[in-house]
Amino acid sequence: MPRELHLVADTNLFFECKSLSQLPWQELGGDPVVILLTSPLLGEIDKHKKGSGRTRKRALQIFEIVRNMLRSQQSEHVVQEGSPRVVLRKAPMIQPDLEHNGALNYNKVDDALVGITSTLSKAAIDYDVAIITDDTNVAASADHIGLRIVLVDESWKREPRQSDEQVRIQKLEKDLDTYRQQEPVIKCEIFGLDEGKQCASKAIAKAQPLTQVEINDALEALKAKHPIRTDFSVPPDEILGVESIETLERWSYIAPSDETISKYQKEDYPAWLKKCHEIFSALHESYPKSDEVVTLTFAFENVGTRPAEDAKIEFSCNGDIAFRRPPEEDEDSVTGTRSPSPLWHRPSLPSPPTTPRIERIVHRAPFIRQAKHSKGVDIGSVLAATNTPGLRLATMLQRQEKLLSPLWAQDRITKGILGSAISNPLGDAFARQHELVETMNTRMIPEPSISSIHRPFIPEQHDPEAFYFRKWSKGSPETYGKITCDLWRHQQGKVDFEIEVMFAGGGAANGRIVCEVHAGNLTRPFTTAVAVKRIINEYPFTEDITQMIAGV
């Protein structure tokens, strides 16, 4: 169970520490904690009543507590009721220990407090006594004569006193904050960043050329699947159909010529392997390049109480990058989204050369009867009789006549204009075609249109509340870009600007996009930045080579 703890305090506890009610008294281990107001302490505090600043304020507070204790004839003042209980207690009549008089100069306040602590320690029976101080000299004297010491922890101290210059700066900053509350306030939300980070990265799958070992392994796999043929020996003759003389056949075989075999083995097969070698060597070139652009959208908003006057949004970059406004051809006309990157269609290997065939000759008995076939019909002669050019043209024109006859009737074109002169189907159709052309030529005379009248060029009027790109064309890589607005209204929602970040070189790259917003009535520019990087991952062709070989 904690014992009662009596503390002899010096002025540091009252002037340099936080308020007594805010200190962590439980760290001392006593309950209750009694802070003694000794005569040397009260005398030293009394001197600070005539000072200035926060020390004087603390001195007046303590003496007001002492005065209230005197008025109410109370010996204690409660600082904290529990955990632990902390009180201030009057102790003006306790004298320093005479045993140490001489070794300690009791004319000095610090030595007098050490002497009083010694006196109380000798008389303490059921409570503990300690001196609490932040003074090294006091602590050393108390320790020398065997007294308990409680050194003030740094966490107990209040913030250092501000100088007059610091007070003035603080006041000016407060005035500036008040002024800024009457300015535009720019906020920006950036889309396209990595989740939970203020950066954007692009991982690229890049194809590397196959090594010679990989190419050789692939060619060996092809040879194993389609080996070159070296044996062209012919089998012996065969006789079939011995059940009946009418079905008797003899099969004989003829090997390919030496020239054919030589061409296959020395030209065709090596040429096929060479072509496959070329395809494997250039496989990385056929792999499509990934879209290496990082798209960032900056959504700006003026959430202040004033419009931003002569606003200017500036984009700049550093590192291995550049940026551009998205080109129109990369955007969908309805959704505004970029078209997806094309898929890769792996190249196919050529089929192996055809192996020279061993021919088989079938010999039949000469007396085998051959089946007779019917003569049939000469289809060519039938088509020739019904497919004359004149008849085909007449048929086409007659069909047109049926479709266009309402126009002839509307324009009062009689069918007999040329019908009496031309009696055959071809001439009759030509006559109607002639009438239709004449009628349509008459109708196709264009009428004057107001839209076709030349109008003078009227330049677009400048909108002071619109945003304009200054010398920043679409699709052009830049390292600096500027957008201006004469009057950026506040509380009008977000305005979005999209940029595409491009990387230099073919390897890993890093850079930084910096965006600043300036305005005539904005004392401090708004600034935000995004780190961007490109990560290169090597694309493995192992599975693709397996599929290519399987497809041959």
From TrEMBL:
<feature type="region of interest" description="Disordered">
    <location>
        <begin position="322"/>
        <end position="356"/>
    </location>
</feature>
<dbReference type="InterPro" id="IPR002716">
    <property type="entry name" value="PIN_dom"/>
</dbReference>
<protein>
    <recommendedName>
        <fullName>PIN domain-containing protein</fullName>
    </recommendedName>
</protein>
<feature type="domain" description="PIN">
    <location>
        <begin position="7"/>
        <end position="148"/>
    </location>
</feature>
<dbReference type="Pfam" id="PF13638">
    <property type="entry name" value="PIN_4"/>
</dbReference>
